[in-house]
Amino acid sequence: AQLSYTNKVNHSLTIEKENMMQANSRIKDVDIASESTQYAKNKILVSSATAMTAQANMLPELVLNLIR
């Protein structure tokens, strides 16, 4: 009887370990997806800011050309 109980406990612990490993893997996958999304968003924001700065820097030159 004791051996049967020990086997059941061992089986339960093995299943629990597998479940924990799967949960940990899913959490890591979500973290990677979230970070990738945030990285892409920030990259777009930097590109937009660079383009806006370039256009803003052109304005004084355009005004001078209009005056001439």
- H/E element sequence: H
Distance between the termini: 102 Å
Number of helices: 1
Q: Number of DSSP strands? A: 0
Q: Kindly name the structural category.
A: mainly alpha
Structure description:
It is a single chain. The protein is an all-alpha fold and 68 residues long. It has one domain.
Task: Give me some keywords for this one.
68 residues
Give a short synopsis of this structure.
The protein is an all-alpha fold and 68 residues long. The protein has one domain.
Protein topology:
Elements: H1 2-67
